[in-house]
## 1
Amino acid sequence: MNDDRSSSPSRRAIVDLTTGVGDCVLPREFISIAARADQADAETLTEDEKFLKIWFATFLSEQDGNGDCGKAFVACGKACADRHGVNGTIDRIKSDLNPDATLDEKLTALDLGLFGGGRLTRRGNTVTAVYGHCYCSFVKQGWIDSPQLCECTAGWCKTTFGRMFDREVGVEIIQTVLRGGDTCEIRISLE
């Protein structure tokens, strides 16, 4: 572990995992919960432990070992969207729309139905989502505070917007709170 991580009180729980996980950083508590969930009988796991088991298995299976965790976190973002029922929510939103709904009508329905309203803006075929804080449960619970986790949001957005607009979308993380920004800002290309 390098010295700046160990000297920062907020980073003491973070460890570098160098065996099979490249240089990705995950907290000890996260690892121990995932290990316990992996060894436990599925019927005894809490919902959070079940999700953590799936998320961590996805992370490990997608990690390429070269220190770049982006692909693994994007895959985990899809798992998170799946776990939280995003596909079902989007299907309900779409079923409530007129089949001839415009792009703006679809975006407004998505904004109100999934994002809480007022978070999505559009310019041409580019949508920008802005949040005042991080919504990730792993961050809220203090399990992960690595800026690498923000790539998970890219996977969540790819899944969400891809499902809503029935196409592959591009996602770019502009800034995040974990990376020192005042907000989390994600740009989604619908082209």
## 2
Amino acid sequence: MENLRKTKKIIEKNAYLVLGTCRNDIPWTAPLFYASDKSLDFYFVSGKETRHVKDLEENSNVSVTIFDSQATPEEADGIYIEGTARQVAVSELPKAIKLIYKKRFTDPSELKKHVHEVDDFLGHNPRRFYKIKTGRIYKLDTESTSEVDKRVEIDIEKMREIL
């Protein structure tokens, strides 16, 4: 249960994830602001011409890491995700927009200055929303006494219950 609580804290506390993509056997990583939902889906907004978007258009398999880059080596903790990513469907855009902008602008008066409509992310507009569907999730095993880092798999269904 402790690993579930720590995983939840990592997801809720951090603002950025590192997305790993690959196309034509050439890997790429991109740090991205994210928001997540109770299904463990992760959302980000990005330019439709960016390298990571072009990569996932050809290969939807992705990896994700979320960690506190300011933690000391003794405090280090993080999660690792295997999943798939795709552009958010038009019907899901209101949810994605709300999740991202509520997380980004926690002050209600600031949030009001950044109201976006679905059309802002369609057609000729350069940005799109994307969704990462979690397949498997792992966490750094901070309880291990090994000199080498180890990971433990997190039960996704139990994780969803505590979100």
## 3
Amino acid sequence: MHPFLFLRQTKNLCFFLTLWYNGSMKQTYLEIGRILSTHGLVGEVNFEHWGDDEKGALSLKTVYTDPKGLRALKVRRARMGTKHILFTFDGIDNVDAAALLRMKTLWARREDLAKDDSTVFWADLIGEEVRDEKGIVFGKIRDIYNRGASDIWEIETDKGERILFPAAPVFVKEVTCEGAVIAPPEGLF
């Protein structure tokens, strides 16, 4: 699985990939990015955000360094840097303490990220069916990749074939937690 970026469609849909389940169908904690390096001498860190909603990441009050939410970091300050988000955390007051966080993946609680009840994350789509507007099932989403212009869904057909589908808004008609309705390019399936 590739926990790197988001898939953004329309109507307040944003998607993140995560690998942790809390026993329910939806993961409680979702990967949001990775701390890249320290910034300055007072414990600030450069954070690579893996989503489309930087304002949402900047508004987080708590982030976690593990997928179960056991190790919390209270956000003291969050601001935009030149290329990345800059975080300062309570208890991380110098460059040496901040250096210990280098290359750590951060998680956030689903409810802290969701814009509203219609928000669907990558993690919700993995394993769900993809069908056309007539109800014909093409297969199930096995993985999601971001390659720039649009995201790519890896769809496994019932014959075991893996198809790479360009999940551009022109082809994706509807996305819910139960799957997606698409209008694929002719000849893809």
